[in-house]
Write a structure and sequence with these properties.
Elements lengths: L7 E3 L9 E3 L3 H16 L9 H17 L2 H8 L1 H4 L5 H26 L8 H11 L10 H8 L5 H17 L1 H14 L15 H14 L8 E2 L4 E3 L2 E3 L4 E2 L3 H5 L42 H18 E5 L12 E2 L3 E2 L5 E5 L1
Helix pairs in contact: 1-8, 2-5, 8-9, 8-10, 8-12
């Protein structure tokens, strides 16, 4: 069943004589992006109404909301004290443990049905490497690391949230939407699916994707890292086991590198000839050797989703663009866009 199956009839602008279906895109987008990762990691594509799948989505969504709450920021400052008291952090730890239990059960099922000559997915490949290096000293291919690595499918929440922010920004800036659709019509047309090969010929769409990621600033404080040994960095001494937070938001809003840091403007990633212009300061998924393992996959997903949706549909808001609020409803570990509804109208 399609994740967009459950739509609610609402009256929108310009629809006094026509009833249109307006939907909140957050749940279907999360379902779609999560299923892609599930196919890669677990070798399983869930039905969108599968209770087990819906429970996984609920756990991921709840955990991301807690991480992004003001309480989470307070907890990071006072964790040595607050960890002894009840609070949302207990609920979050319970969610994570339930996710780990699901992964562990899935790993055991894979172990029982593993065919070394025909690995089915990421878990099978990891298990085969574990067997190969089981006697190797200091190997990183352990059961614990397998469970923690598979937990990266929680990153599907960031991809789906980026998609939600993108459509909200298109509703707010219809002129950008028109330019993207004009490029889609010119390069892809209406009669075939988009492919990653099209991306090189679509500089404006590529610039829009980068600008959506920059402007939405999905993880403004970055994913924390821990220093493994005493480190001297630019005159500062950082002791071993210190947690370090790369403040990505300060980079993505730096006026030295982005002319209009607080405005949504795809020109930040285009040169004077309209060609895509990469900005080396751009960082939305941490940086260095510990950059997010799924960043390249996420950007490919975003391109294919954007082009497929906009190739086939125009977007209609419930309210005029000037009245659309794009302020995050939650801002902490993550920036979560406000709830909104839109109508997809066939082109």
């Amino acid at each position: 069943m399609s994740p967009f199956a459950d739509g609610e009839q609402r009256q929108g602008i310009g629809t006094s004589h026509t009833s249109r279906t307006y939907v909140d895109p957050s749940t279907p987008f999360h379902s779609i992006t999560a299923n892609i990762i599930c196919s890669i990691v677990f070798g399983e594509h869930f039905d969108y109404q599968d209770p087990k799948f819906l429970q996984l989505l609920s756990l991921l969504n709840d955990t991301f909301n807690i991480l992004s709450s003001f309480y989470s920021q307070v907890f990071e400052l006072l964790s040595s004290l607050l960890k002894h008291f009840p609070g949302p952090h207990k609920h979050m730890h319970s969610n994570i443990q339930e996710l780990k239990d699901f992964i562990t059960e899935n790993v055991e099922q894979h172990r029982e049905t593993l065919d070394p000559s025909a690995p089915r997915d990421f878990i099978d490949c990891f298990l085969l490497r574990m067997d190969k290096e089981r006697l190797a000293p200091g190997t990183e291919f352990t059961h614990k690391n397998l469970v923690h690595t598979v937990l990266f499918f929680a990153g599907t929440k960031t991809s789906s949230t980026t998609l939600c922010y993108a459509l909200l920004l298109f509703l707010k800036h219809p002129e950008v939407l028109e330019k993207v659709q004009a490029e889609i019509d010119r390069v892809i047309g209406r009669h075939r699916l988009s492919s990653l090969d099209d991306r090189a010929r679509m500089p404006y769409a590529d610039a829009v994707i980068y600008e959506v990621q920059r402007f939405s600033d999905l993880t403004p404080i970055g994913v924390p890292h821990r220093v493994l040994e005493d480190t001297d960095f630019r005159g500062y001494h950082i002791p071993k086991d210190t947690d370090v937070y790369p403040l990505l938001g300060s980079v993505l809003r730096d006026p030295k590198y982005f002319r209009y840091p607080h405005a949504f403007n795809p020109q930040h990633f285009l040169d004077e000839q309209g060609c895509f212009k990469k900005n080396d300061i751009f960082a939305v998924a941490s940086s260095g050797k510990r950059i997010c393992v799924g960043e390249a996959l996420a950007r490919m997903e975003l391109f294919l989703y954007f082009t497929s949706i906009l190739q086939n549909f125009s977007l209609r808001p419930l309210v005029p663009p000037a009245d659309i609020d794009i302020t995050p409803r939650i801002s902490g570990f993550g920036n979560i866009p406000p709830n909104y509804e839109l109508c997809l109208v066939g082109r």
